[in-house]
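Onboarding guide, step 5: your first structure request.
Type a short instruction followed by the sequence, for example:

Predict the 3D structure of this protein.
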Amino acid sequence: MKQKPGDDPTNHVSFPGFKELLHRLPAVLGEMVRGKAAGFSDSSELREDRISLGWNEASARTVSNEIEDLVRRGVAVRPNMETWSDADIALAEEIAIATDRAGISNITRTEAYLACYQAYPELHWAFLAHMVSRNAGWNMTDLQGSRIADTMDEEGKRSAYRFIERSNALIFQDAYPQLLLYMKSRELGSSHFHLLPYFHVSRFMLPFWERFWIDRGSALLAVGLIINEQHYIEKRVIKHPYYQKYVTDKARFHLFSLSGLNHIVFPLLEDGPAAKSDNDGAIEAGNGTAERMVTRLAGRVVSDFGSLPARIALGKGLYAMLMGLRGVRSGAQNFAAAVPHSGSRADYWPDIFTAKREEALTFPVQGSELLEAETLPAGKRLYSPKLLDAWGDMPYEPIPREDWLKDTSALDGISAPKPPYLCDISREHRLGILKTALAHDSLADS
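The system replies with structure tokens like these:
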């Protein structure tokens, strides 16, 4: 396709292979019907065995009232180091250094979240952040994988990568010091949340942490962090003029969102013998591999990433699903413990993806292979590279430190999280992969 002067190369979407897509449409529609039916049945099974999240409505009202008072008084929370002891300052500096060290990449951030949860399991949000951060890594490598790499220009891929990476990095920068401060407080035997302003954490979070220190209410803290982090990236990324111009307003962004890149998946690994992963993400155990052990995927579809209330509702639903459904919690924990995060989708579906380019499909047509079989044989799998093979480090502009809390509108999100009715996404996710493969095929035919 020739580019006209003044055209934006990131904004072209064409379907020259439309006839081929139309020919395959009946098979795709059949896959959709089967997927929906399986999704309803499998979701009902997952929802049967629930775990109480321990939501405390009285604590939620107390926290809301305290935040209302903060907003009414217009109290600005700034570091007041004159009142801090030398030990306070040393602790804050130690946490800042640890945050910088752990925030180098999506790989290190994802690992750091899991370490927090394993050390203090009451930090439910840390495990949610770990699983969602895995998805961010998978989405970033998708941009260099076989389904998408050939259908986007380099600048478009780079802009989309920066969008995902910056969101992941900023949330970590804001949340990880909070987690470490709690962990250090536990070690020291006393609350040190008066140091939150050192890390430019919104005053919104102080009542949540103070209440959590008293009653260890995991669900209320998780909801607070979900609300806080989505507000934190709202102006810094989602509504940032650069990303609105070069990413979220682009037709390709919406095309691939509709085709499955907007899925957040939690791979569920069944209980079994101790397992370890090989270099391609497959899990080797005494009785089999990851193909047999990753039994299903729980998850949700992100329908409106640009809407702040929708993202908060999504986060609460994901939390309730991950920590409130026993099968999802145990399966995701097994997966997280057994499979190190590499960024490749071969981490969870090595029978469809491979991180080794020499073992991937070498011909352009992909959709037909996925339509013909549930799995792909070696040599015909989709290429999904490891994150460190796909992207290098990129510098970022300075980060605004302004507190996002200006009014009480955020209090609307402080309510008991509930799991969605449809929580098994195994078939729907595979269909999303199929649709991107078909879109790739149509462009490859041009």
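Each response can be followed by summary notes, for example: The chain has one domain: 18-444.
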